[in-house]
TrEMBL record:
Coiled coil: none annotated. This is DNA 3'-5' helicase. Residues 236-508 form the UvrD-like helicase C-terminal domain. It comes from Paenibacillus peoriae. Keywords: ATP-binding, DNA-binding, Helicase, Hydrolase, Isomerase, Nucleotide-binding. CDD domains: DEXQc_UvrD, SF1_C_UvrD. It comes from the Bacteria. Belongs to the helicase family. UvrD subfamily. Residues 603-660, 682-717 are annotated as: Disordered. Pfam families: UvrD-helicase (PF00580), UvrD_C (PF13361), YdjO (PF14169).
């Protein structure tokens, strides 16, 4: 605009969030030589808002049907009407349908070569018909219909004449449909600029195609590629760790990044015994930092791989009155739709007349929640029962076997209080709940089922901490009540509160201090990436030209680890719990690779099993003056000093697996026998960068006990 007199109204900026679009317009207004009126004239929109504006301009007035829970309810209704309720999960079908549409295809084009495909297609078409009858369209429909409009020259050509310059932000997140729209709009003038980072392609489950950014200069052979190689966010050592993690990926653009962010501390690591100890250590550690005035709560983010992976840290934050905002999650873990029926069975075992706990128990009895509760409440007015569920045994709408199931379920509920809570959950799963979730299943493994299994295992893990059902239920209820009291924080964007979110949700954000939890095998990389193939609902969204195999899935997991690390500006704490859901979990291969260690078992099939725990000790530790983690050693929590560097290297050294000579080095050791924390002590006279390099004994970062001088054996490399 300022240099080439390009009219502001002919510039189209496209991104993925309204907040990013508004930020771009704000920055344009602050550029020298750009008048406020010109800044306002620039079209900065999300893909969906641009597409919706197109549709509205062409007279489409359908209502946007974007509420996820409402979509699930409608799909569930369609499955029930078709007699397919026991064959499919609504979440899986909606996910597969969304991935299909992201490729630019309609539901009519879905395959139906086998019975399962035919049934799934019937349900999806019924869902589509329901929307059409009510003049509704979801977000996928908006893009699909807008893309169809752009195939009409009468629609496309005026837009091409209007927008001579097009720019796309976060290009690596575009799906095939969005990319096709951009290509059509830019075809006339070919003034197209895209900005993105192939190392942050983490949304392939939403249809994002890494090939779009990797092959952009092959599609547009006259394109100029400009590498933005200066990172203004992170400390060089934090950026170095991230760069060395992602450098192991094969399918990426090689780049060498330099750090220009504010200097912080080297990444620090801990290996707690499991998620409970992990959560306790982290909350104690962050409370110490806040109490000592080094950080505010709002400076801190805790990042986790999956929704269920936040359960332990969520509970610690609640119970220790730490203000926090959880993004992307609604109810407390124990109140989630998958978990609630089991918890309500436990609640009814303590108080069978707890009426608010009855509705969620009706689904596993294959009884309509609304109609069932209406019958129970009507009968209760006639004659109250100790177990109101018993009224269903006299409901003429139920078959004989269903009435008998009601009686059996009441007998089970009565017995639950005599069991340990973890065993009670296992019994409910064995007797009816797993069958209810998977009954009539076609046998196809899906991402939703993987997540479901993970959440149920997490529930059992949580229950093992309690000796009685009453104690477990009381804890869950108190947690829910405290969470309700803290919900006001979510509505205040600038609240002084810790941010708790998945790594996916954190992309594009930055924080002075980041805790990355769950850096262990099976968590990150996630167990789903270690299967021989992707689940059906994720495979549906994969690009046709992409090999959907272990390597592709692992490369995306590695990019997730890179995103987690590079959210941190000055302080990064990484924890690798040694167990997950009661099973041993080795430290994440991504960390070991970054420090030059190759797992002993490197064959493809070995990815399904642990590769052994690296040498080291528990507790946070850091490298004094390290420039790139590739020069460090392969312990779980500590690494040797390396050369200082202002830039973050993007290559990493590779160490052999043979035995190495070891040396004794001076360290600070925690004086608490129950705590295994230690930190490397710098005895040189050079520049001191952390508590570990001072002569005064520091306080243990895990348990706040005093530390004392000692030695530790580490590899000599």
């Amino acid at each position: 605009m300022a240099m080439r007199d390009v009219p502001a109204s002919s510039i189209l900026l496209v991104t993925f969030t309204s907040k990013a679009a508004a930020e771009m317009k704000l920055r344009i207004a602050g550029l020298p030589g750009v008048r406020p009126a010109a800044a306002r004239a620039v079209q900065a929109r999300t893909f969906h808002s641009f597409a919706l504006a197109m549709l509205r301009h062409r007279g489409v007035q359908d209502e946007v049907f974007g509420e996820t829970q409402a979509q699930h309810t409608v799909m569930k209704m369609m499955l029930r009407q078709l007699g397919l309720s026991e064959a499919f999960q609504p979440e899986s079908l909606l996910s597969a349908l969304s991935a299909w549409k992201a490729e630019g295809r309609s539901a009519d084009e879905l395959p139906e070569t086998v019975r399962e495909e035919s049934d799934a297609k019937r349900a999806m078409l019924a869902y589509e018909a329901w929307k059409q009858e009510r003049n509704k369209m979801d977000f996928d429909d908006i893009l699909l219909r807008a893309s169809a409009l752009l195939r009409d020259p009468d629609v496309l050509q005026p837009l091409q004449r209007r927008f001579s310059h097009i720019m796309v932000d976060e290009f690596q997140d575009t799906n095939a449909l969005q990319y096709e729209m951009v290509q059509r709009l830019a075809a006339r003038h070919r003034n197209l600029m895209v900005v993105g980072d192939d190392d942050q392609t983490i949304y392939t489950f939403n249809g994002a195609r890494q090939e779009s950014i990797l092959e952009f200069d092959k599609v547009y052979k006259d394109a100029k590629v400009i590498t933005l190689d200066i990172n203004y966010r992170s400390d060089a050592r934090i950026l170095g760790l991230g760069s060395n993690i992602v450098a192991k990926n094969v399918h990426r653009r090689s780049k060498r990044l330099s750090a220009a962010g504010r200097e912080g501390l080297p990444p620090q690591f801990a290996t707690p015994s499991g998620p409970e100890e992990e959560a306790g250590h982290i909350v104690t550690h962050l409370l110490g930092q806040v109490e000592e005035g080094r950080l505010r709560y709002r400076d801190i983010a805790i990042l986790h791989r999956t929704a269920s992976g936040s359960r332990s840290i969520f509970e610690q934050l609640i119970m220790r009155d730490v203000p926090f905002i959880q993004y992307g999650a609604g109810a407390v873990f124990y109140d989630q739709s998958l978990i609630r029926p089991l918890m309500d069975h436990l609640r009814l075992s303590l108080n069978p007349r707890r009426m608010e706990s009855i509705p969620s128990t009706l689904g596993p009895l294959y009884v309509s929640r609304e109609a069932g509760m209406e019958w129970i409440m009507r009968e209760e007015k006639q004659q109250a029962k100790k177990y109101p569920l018993i009224h269903l045994s006299r409901w003429d709408r139920l078959r004989d076997f269903q009435r008998e199931q009601v009686k059996e379920r009441i007998r089970l509920i009565r017995s639950l209080t005599t069991m340990k809570p973890a065993y009670a959950i296992q019994e409910m799963r064995r007797i009816f709940y797993d069958k209810y979730l998977e009954s009539g299943d076609t046998g196809a493994w899906t991402h939703y089922k993987e997540t479901m299994q993970e959440s149920l295992e997490e529930l059992e893990t949580a229950a093992k901490r309690f000796d009685t059902v009453e104690a477990f239920v009381s804890f869950a209820d108190e947690l829910s009540e405290r969470h309700r009291q803290m919900e006001s924080l979510r509505r205040e964007e600038d609240s002084d509160a810790v941010r708790l979110m998945t790594i996916h949700r954190a992309k594009g954000l930055e924080f002075p201090c980041v805790y990355w939890i769950g850096a262990s095998e099976g968590i990150l990389p996630h167990s789903s990436a270690l299967h021989s193939e992707l689940p059906e609902d994720r495979r549906a969204g994969a690009a046709p030209t992409t090999a959907v195999d272990n390597d592709a899935a692992l490369e995306e997991e590695r990019r997730l680890a890179y995103v987690a690390v590079t959210r941190a500006k000055e302080l990064l704490y990484i924890t690798s719990p040694a167990s997950n859901h009661g099973k041993p979990a080795a430290v994440s291969r991504f960390l070991l690779e970054a420090y030059g260690v190759i797992p002993e078992a490197s064959k493809p099939e070995a990815r399904r099993s642990s590769f052994g725990q690296p040498k080291g000790a528990s507790g946070y530790s850091s490298r004094a003056g390290a420039g790139s983690p590739a020069s460090g050693t392969a312990t779980r929590v500590s690494s040797r000093p390396g050369p200082s560097s202002a830039t973050a290297r993007t290559t990493s050294s590779v160490a052999g697996s043979q035995a190495e000579p070891r040396i004794n080095v001076p360290v600070w050791k925690c004086t608490d026998d129950a705590c295994k924390a230690w930190m490397r002590r710098d005895t040189t006279s050079g520049r001191r960068t952390s508590a570990a390099s001072t002569s005064t004994p520091p306080v243990c970062p895990l348990c706040a006990s005093p530390m004392t001088e000692g030695t530790r054996s580490i590899p000599a490399r």
